[in-house]
């Protein structure tokens, strides 16, 4: 992961502190962020075009940091199936433990200006070959080379299927309170097994 400039990092930390204190992501102002960061409001616009871009980048930065921390643990898992199970477990843990992760999951299922900015930033990271999509692609490439993923399935299709199933779990995590008949453990196993049955030889 490339090094982040100190003032940009201060802005990210400002956003994350506000969210950890219970601020509503949609009502956070640039002045709130810069006050937390200890920098002038105008400085924020030296690095970002809008409030939405600051918040989107801060949220993605946080998720990417957490993924980097877990990457070593993920790499210890031998085999595509074990990595997929670990990824689902990780998403559930993060959702339970961290407000920021829950916020980004919530925003990706909305139709707001902030959610579209997050999706734009994800696309930029995809083109740059970094972030969560890169890790999933590497998992699928490894699974294909080890003969775990069926040879008739292109690697990119396996990656798309993985994203789709994980996105479904994200949607469930966000809406689980509205679906009390679905147990979280059952839902996780259902989606995880469904993906593995679809892809593995």
What does this structure look like?
With 201 residues, this protein is mainly alpha-helical. Helix 1 packs across helix 4 and helix 5 runs antiparallel to helix 8 (132-145). The relative contact order is 0.11. The mean pLDDT is 82. 75% of the residues lie in helices and 0% in strands.
Task: Produce a short descriptive summary.
The chain is mostly helical.
Largest sheet: none
- How far apart lie the N and C ends? 33 Å
Percent of residues in helices comes to: over 70%
Strand segment count: 0
Query: Runs with pLDDT <50, length 5+?
Result: none
Oligomeric state of the chains in view? single chain
Strand-residue fraction? under 5%
Rg to the nearest angstrom? 18 Å
Class computed from helices, strands and strand pairing: mainly alpha
Globally, the shape reads globular
Characteristics:
mainly alpha, 10 helices, 201 residues, globular, 0% strand
Set down the secondary structure blueprint:
Blueprint: H1 6-20, H2 30-37, H3 41-47, H4 51-76, H5 80-97, H6 99-108, H7 113-127, H8 132-145, H9 155-175, H10 184-199
Helix pairs in contact: 1-2, 1-4, 4-6, 4-7, 5-6, 5-8, 5-9, 8-9, 9-10
């Amino acid at each position: 992961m490339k090094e982040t400039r100190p003032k940009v990092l201060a802005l990210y930390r400002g956003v994350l502190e506000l969210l950890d204190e219970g601020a509503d992501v949609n009502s956070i102002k640039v002045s709130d962020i810069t006050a937390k960061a200890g920098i002038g409001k105008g400085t924020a616009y030296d690095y970002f075009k809008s409030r939405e871009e600051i918040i989107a980048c801060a949220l993605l930065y946080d998720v990417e940091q957490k993924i980097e921390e877990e990457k070593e643990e993920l790499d210890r898992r031998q085999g595509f199936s074990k990595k997929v199970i670990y990824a689902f477990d990780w998403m559930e843990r993060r959702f339970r433990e961290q407000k920021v992760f829950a916020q980004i999951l919530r925003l990706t299922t909305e139709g707001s200006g902030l959610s579209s900015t997050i999706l734009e930033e994800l696309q930029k990271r995809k083109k740059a070959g970094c972030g969560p999509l890169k890790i999933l692609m590497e998992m699928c490439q490894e699974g294909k080379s080890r003969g775990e993923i069926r040879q008739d399935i292109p690697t990119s299709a396996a990656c798309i299927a993985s994203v789709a199933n994980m996105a479904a779990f994200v949607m469930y995590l966000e809406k689980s309170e509205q679906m009390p008949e679905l147990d979280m453990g059952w839902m996780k196993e259902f989606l995880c097994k469904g993906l593995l049955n679809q892809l593995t030889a």
